[in-house]
Amino acid sequence: MTEVLAAAGLRVTLGGATILHDVDLTVSDGEVVGLLGANGSGKSTLVRALVGVVPAERGTVRLLGEPLGRRTPWDRIGYVPQRVAVASGVPATAREVVVSGMLHGRRLVPPRHAGRRAAEALELVGLGHLAHRACQELSGGQQQRVLIARALVRRPDLLLLDEPVAGVDLPSQEAFARALADLRTSGTTVVVVLHELGALAPLVRRAVVLRHGSVVHDGAPPAPAPGHAAPSHDHVHPHGGEDASPPDALGLSTVGWSS
Ligand SMILES: Nc1ncnc2c1ncn2[C@@H]1O[C@H](COP(=O)(O)OP(=O)(O)OP(=O)(O)O)[C@@H](O)[C@H]1O
C-alpha cells in the first residue's frame, strides 16, 4: 500500500501550551480515516498542522510522498476547514467559490472545464439549483456544503475534512456520504474529523482517537452507545467535558459514544 500521509513526532505548541504531543499518523492509499475525540482534544489542530496552517514545533509531515512545503502537490489535495463563513461579505456566487477550488499555486486562471466541474461538484452536495446564488444568501449548512464542493472539484487524491457535516441536515449528510463513497471507489484517501460517525459510519473503517493531544486509539471505530445513533436522539444532554469523571479509557465519553 502506498503511503499517502505520514506524520511523525508532530508537536504543536499554541499560546504557550503544547496542544499535540508527538503524534504519529500514517494513512495509506484509499483509506477513510475518522479522527475522533472530545472537544479540545486536538483534532482540528492536527489537521491544520498536517496542511501547514499551524506550524509544527517538532516532527515531520509528508503528503502524497512529498514533504510539507514548496513541493507539496496541493492540486491533488482537498481541505475543508472547520465551519468558516464562505461569504464574509464578498459577493461571490456558490459556483464562483467552487471554481476557485481549481486554482492553486501558479494556476491563477481557472481551466476551461472549470464551470462544468463546479456544476458537477455542486450537484454532488445537492446544491446544483443554488449555483448562481450569492453565498451570503445561503444558510450556514449550505455554505458548508459549498466548501465541501470547493474541495471536491479538484478530484483530490487526498481529502482532509474538519467536521464537514456539522450543522448539515441528515439528507445532505447522506448525500455527502454517497459522494465520499464514490470518491473512495475512485481511490481518494480521506481523513475526516468527526464528532460522531453518523451517516459516514459505513465508510469509516479506521478511527484515530485523540485525547489531550495524544493518540489513544487507532483501529476499528468504537461502537456508539445504544440509542446514540437513533434519529430520535436529541444530543442536548451533557456528554461530559474535559473534567468529566471518570472518562472511559479512550476519552470517548465526551463525544457522544457513551453517556
Ligand atoms: N490559536 C490557538 N491558540 C491557543 N490555543 C489554541 C489555539 N487553537 C486551539 N487551541 C487550543 O488547542 C486545544 C485543541 O483545540 P482543537 O481545536 O484542535 O480541538 P478539537 O479536538 O478540534 O476540538 P472541537 O471538537 O471542539 O472542534 C484546545 O484546548 C484549544 O483551546
UniProtKB/TrEMBL annotation:
<dbReference type="InterPro" id="IPR027417">
    <property type="entry name" value="P-loop_NTPase"/>
</dbReference>
<keyword id="KW-0813">Transport</keyword>
<comment type="similarity">
    <text>Belongs to the ABC transporter superfamily.</text>
</comment>
<dbReference type="GO" id="GO:0016887">
    <property type="term" value="F:ATP hydrolysis activity"/>
</dbReference>
<dbReference type="Pfam" id="PF00005">
    <property type="entry name" value="ABC_tran"/>
</dbReference>
<dbReference type="InterPro" id="IPR003439">
    <property type="entry name" value="ABC_transporter-like_ATP-bd"/>
</dbReference>
<dbReference type="GO" id="GO:0005524">
    <property type="term" value="F:ATP binding"/>
</dbReference>
<protein>
    <submittedName>
        <fullName>ABC transporter ATP-binding protein</fullName>
    </submittedName>
</protein>
<keyword id="KW-0067">ATP-binding</keyword>
<feature type="compositionally biased region" description="Basic and acidic residues">
    <location>
        <begin position="231"/>
        <end position="242"/>
    </location>
</feature>
<feature type="domain" description="ABC transporter">
    <location>
        <begin position="5"/>
        <end position="237"/>
    </location>
</feature>
<keyword id="KW-0547">Nucleotide-binding</keyword>
<dbReference type="InterPro" id="IPR050153">
    <property type="entry name" value="Metal_Ion_Import_ABC"/>
</dbReference>
<feature type="region of interest" description="Disordered">
    <location>
        <begin position="218"/>
        <end position="259"/>
    </location>
</feature>
<dbReference type="InterPro" id="IPR017871">
    <property type="entry name" value="ABC_transporter-like_CS"/>
</dbReference>
<dbReference type="InterPro" id="IPR003593">
    <property type="entry name" value="AAA+_ATPase"/>
</dbReference>
